[in-house]
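Usage

Read records sequentially. Each one opens with the input sequence:
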Amino acid sequence: QQSMERGGFVGAIIYVWKSHLPMGRFFDAGAPATILGLAVGRLGCLINGDAWGAPTGGNWGLVYTNPAARLPASLLNVPTQPFPIYELILDVGIFFVLSWLRDTGRIKANGAVTLLTFLSYSVVRFFLTYFRQERIIFMGLQQAQLIAVICAATMVPALVFIFVHARLRGERPTEVATAPIADQAAGTD
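and closes with the structure output:
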C-alpha cells in the first residue's frame, strides 16, 4: 500500500515536471488537505489512546478506562488533557484558513501555501506539546517541540524567499472560478 502511494506521488511529480507546470502550485493544491488528514488521524488517536495528554490534576479531562488503550497503564482511569481533541480543532482551523487563502488568491507566491502549512502545523505542535507527557530531550523541550522549532526555522526563510521571488517576478495569484459549478457544467457564465 505505501509503495503504491509513494509511486503515485513520484509519478505525479514527474508528470508536473515534464509538463512544465509550476511545482509550487502542485503542492499548494493539496497542502491544506494534508492538515485535514492529520485532523482525521487524531480521531484515531482519540479512540485508541496513543496520543495521550498529561494528567490534568483535577476531575476533568479525557479518561481512558480500557486496558487495551495504548497509553501507559499508570494513566488508566486518570483524567488527562484531551490532546487529540485540541489538535483536531486546531488542524481543522488551519485547513479552513489555508484553503481560504489559497482559493481566494490572497497568496500570490507559488509554494507559499505549502510552506505555510508546515509552519502553522509546527507552531501548533510546539505549543500543544506542553499538554503532553513526553520525555524532555534538550533545553527543556520535548522531541516534537525540537522538530517543530527546526521546521519553523526552515520555513520562515523559505517563505521570505518565495514571497520576495514572487514579488520580483510579478507572479499573480491562481485564477479562481467565480461562477457556480452548475453554471460551469452547463457552459454558462
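Summary fields computed downstream for this record:
- Residues 173-185 have pLDDT under 50 and may be disordered.
- The chain has six helices and two strands.
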